[in-house]
Every structure is written in C-alpha cells, then in structure tokens.
Amino acid sequence: MNSTVRSLRTLSIIFFSVLSSVNIQADSMPADLSMIQEEIKSLKETLGEHGSFEMPVHEFNLKELLCRMIDQCPAPSSMLRECCKKLEQGQITLTLSELLEIMPELVQFAYEQYPHDGPDARAARPDAPPVTANDAVVGKSGCDLTQVLALLAMIKKSINMLKQIICEKFAFTWTILEEILSTFSCAQCIAISTPTTITIPGCYCLSADILGSIIIDADRVILDLNNHQVSGAGNNIDIANNRTDIFIKNGYITTATGNGINVGPNAVNVQLKNISFIDNNVGVFLNGLNNFEIECVKIENCIFRGNTTSAIDGNFVRNSTIENVVCKENIGTFVIQILNGENVSFNTVKVNENLTTAPINIQLSSNITFFNCQVNNNASIGNLNGINLDSNNNVKFNACTINTNTVVGDFIGMNVINSNDIKASGVSINQNNAGTSAIGINANVVNKLNVYNVQANNNTSAANFVYGFSNDGSSDCSYIESHALANGGSNSDTSGFRSVNSTKTMYQDCFANDNLATNTAIGFDLRSSSTSCVLSCIAKRNTATGITGSEVGRGIYLFDSPNCYVERNLVASNTGTLSVGIDVTFTTAPFNTTVFANQAQDHILNYLTTPANILTVFYTRSLATVSATPTPLDNIDII
C-alpha cells in the first residue's frame, strides 16, 4: 500500500479515536496502528469534551465531496448526511467532532478512488490559492485527494490550537506530528548541494556539505541533512515567517555568524532532531514576536557545543518541548533562554560544562516544566544563576541537579524573583563553590513556592554568606523534607534555611545540620517573617568557628517574627563562643508566638527575650546549664 495513503488512514483513525464515539473494528485498522492503540485511548479521554470547536471548511469544496459520497457510498453514515445537509444550507463551518466522525469515511473514499501509487499527495496551506487542475491528485470518480489532505492538515492545526488540552498529553501530539512528517513525503527526496531557497513542499536531502544558507519558504518540508553540514555567515537555515510543518534532521549546523537555525514568527509545528550545533553565534533562535508567536516546536536529540552567544534562544514560544538535548562548552550570558513562553517543557536537558552567567534563563513565561535536567560543572568569571526565573507563573522542577558549579562571584542554584506558583521536587543543589556568596534556592518576592525533597548541601564560599534556602519579601513558601547540610566554610555567615521580610513560611521535617561560618551559623533563621513555622525539624552541629568572642551557633532563631510556631524540633550541639538552642528575640512587643515540645540540647542558652509573658512557651527536655540575661527558659519540662 502506498505509504502516504496508509498514513492518511492511520491519522484519520487516530483523530477519529480521539474525538468521536464511533467504534473502530480491529480488523479494519492498519497493522501499525495497534502499537499506539493504548496511547490513543488515553488521549481520547483528555480531548473528547472539546469537540465543539468550529472550523471553517468552505475552502475545501467539502459540500460537493460529501454529497458525491452520499450518492456513491453503499451506506453513508447519518453524520455524513447531516454534515452535507448543513453545508447545502450555506453553513461554512463544522465542529471538530463532526469532521472527525466523518473523516474515516472521507479518507476511505479518497483511498478507494486513488488511481495508483505514483504521485506525491501534499496538503496545501489553508491560506494558499485554490489547488489547480495540474496540482491536484484526482481519483477515479473525481475525488481530489489533495483537498482531503489539506483538510486533514487544517484539522491538525485546529487541534493544536487547543493548547491547554494538547499540553496535558504532549507526547501523543508529537507522535501524530512525526507520523505526518515522516510519511507524507515524496517517494524520493530532492537532493541539495548548494545554497537553496525551498518554495515547494516536499522532502529534501543534502548530497554534500553546504557553505551558505538554506531558506525554507514553504510548508510541509522535510529537510534531511543526511550527516552533512551547513556552515557560513548569517543564518545557516532560515525558516521564513508563517511556515508550518517543518522537519529538519540528521546533520551539523556550524560557524553561523547569525543563527544556526532561525525560526521566523508565526511558525507552527517545527521539529529539529539529531542535529549538532557547533561554533555558531546562536544555535537555534525561535524568533517569535508579540501576537506572532511560534507554536509547537520540538528540539530533540540535539547537541549544542561552542556557541558563543547562546545555544537556544526563544521568544513568544508556545506549546513546545526541548528533549534529550546536551549543551556543552558554550559561552555567553545564557545557554538556554525562553522569554514570553507558554507551555514549554524541558525533558532530560543537560546544560553542563559551559562558561556562562545563566545556564538556563526563563522570563515572563508561564506553565514551564523541567524534568530530569542537569546544570552541572559550569563556570563563571562573574556571578552565576544556575536556573534563573524572573516574572514567571507556574514553573515546576522534578528530579533535576544543579551541582559542582564554580563561580568567581556569587552563586545561586535556582534564582526565583517576582514569580508565582513555583514547585521544586527531588532537586539537588550540591557542592557548588563561590568566591563571594552562595545560595541554593533564592526566592525574592515570590508568591507560593513549594520545595519538597530538595537537597542544598556542601555549598561553599570564600567570603560573605552561604544559605541553603533563602526567601526574601515572599509569601506562602513551604519547605518539606528538604536538607541544608554542611554548607559554608570560611565565609562569615551561614544559614541552612533563611526567611527575611516574608509571611507564611513553613519548614517541616527538614534538616539543617553541620553548617559552618566564622561569624554566625544558624540552622533555621527567621527575621521579620510573620505567621511562619518550624515543625518537626532537626538543627544539629551548626558551628561558628571564629575566635573574636562574638561568634554564635544557633539552632533556631526568630527575630521580630510574630505569630510563629516552633514545635517538636530537635536542636542539639550548635556551637560557637555563644551557643544557643532556640532563640526568640523581639525589639518590639512580641505576640502569639508558640514554642512547644522541642528538644533543645547541649547549648549554653535556650531562651526568649522579655517580655515573654505574651508568648505561649513550652520547652521540653532542655539541657542548658548556664543562666543569662534575658532569663533563659532552662530545664523546663511541661507537656
């Protein structure tokens, strides 16, 4: 069977299975469909209720085709008859569910009328001029298969417009896209050996290395680099504005003084696969504009090395993925940047061994996800933010690492500023070394930060401060089952967990142990942070190592932080010239702070400042032995 027609049938049944209620019999399916049958069941559940989307069909001559089908098919469905009736009455749109329900009949009819396996059937752009007689692929009874293909392309584009639903099952949309791009192509590719402008849809392949540019100014283009390279000044490959369904694969993009691959505004469905981007100015530039965004880009199995400004730079990018990508030995302010993005996912992206100040920079974006990503072994002669998030909404991290980076200036593993709803789970930020200061996760003016099972351990600096986790001017920040261990060194101040000028900060089941500093070492440090709590945490062996006489090792410290709860924590062996277990200090009158059922052991002092009678205070099993002013609450066991 001709591969184009087979793929048409496969795609039609995929769409049909997704959004219609008609059962498909197994013996009527192509053999290659059975492998994705289970995936389609899941996708059907996700998309099924969104079939009321209206799609214009007047440009496809669908009325004449459907009516002819009713005359010639032995048993046309009732939906086919209903759609034909609507179009005869002058309606110019059908719902997506209506179209997808009749699509198997339409494609089967087109297949049965298809005369032979020779010509290539390519879908026209929805906004292209009408297909001429010379361009059409006409079946035995006058069925124009090219128009059928164009209708299918329009349906696919309409489905992609359902952004929120598509993103929930993103892998399946790319399964469909790759099926289209891989099989709706010429029987043989068109060879390219010189700089070229592509203006006709089809499959093209390099037969030699090219010094110069390839411009893609057509839809539905497959460009196989065929293990050759495109190099030279300017943009090596330029995808013109408003192009759809572009697939570039298998080769090398090198030494572009502009962009290795430049994707123009309003591009839809662009896939880059198995490409090495080496020694370019910018590897890939997703050149979207406000109101002219780029939709559905997938960068997969690509390598970026030695690019001097950035590896991937995207603006106004929607519904896209960067997957199985390696960025190494790149130089620039950032390696990967997304501005004004929406629904962008990073999966198994390794940004390692680069010289940069921001390996990953995300700004003014929403619905961004990171899974199994690495930002390791990078260096900077200035400051470095491993992942920089500025003015974003709904960003999620899972199973990522930001480890062993070396910085002359300040290091921040994950820098989150002016953002909302940020989640980090299963992340490690370990063994990073800074010249001045270091922070694992820094939240500055953030609303709703959720940190779960995150490690910020063994981070060091030569001066200033080291904080495992810090939030400043933020609200609704929670740290659950997270660790800040063995941070600090010769720097002056270290805190495992720190909150300043914030509200509603919660630490629960966290460890802040073995942090070092020359001046002040604190396990949990809350300053001017109201309505916060430290629950069931452990702070041990936080040590100030200086010798001037004012060094303090504190387990838990609340300074001017009212309406807080410090409950059921273990605080032990925090040392310095002055060692303090739990220290609650107010420069103004305190109120409504509860210290209850804690174990504060092996300290010179466990105390609250006066006036303490406004607070609810219970210490248990407190082993301090030295009194001080203000009067410490020592050796009290009240439960």
Describe what this molecule looks like in 3D.
The chain has a 38-stranded parallel β-sheet that branches. A 4-stranded parallel β-sheet has the order 23-26-28-30, with no helix packed on it. The chain is elongated and about 95 Å long. The longest helix has 18 residues, at about 95-115. It has about 650 residues and is α/β, with parallel strands linked by helices.
Compute the gyration radius: what is it?
31 Å
The level 1 CATH classification of the domain at 185-357 is Mainly Beta
* Relevant CATH superfamily of the domain at 185-357: Single-stranded right-handed beta-helix, Pectin lyase-like
> Beta-sheet strand percentage?
35-45%
CATH topology-level name of the domain at 185-357 = Pectate Lyase C-like
Give start-end ranges of low-pLDDT stretches.
1-47, 114-144, 159-177, 183-187, 610-614, 618-639
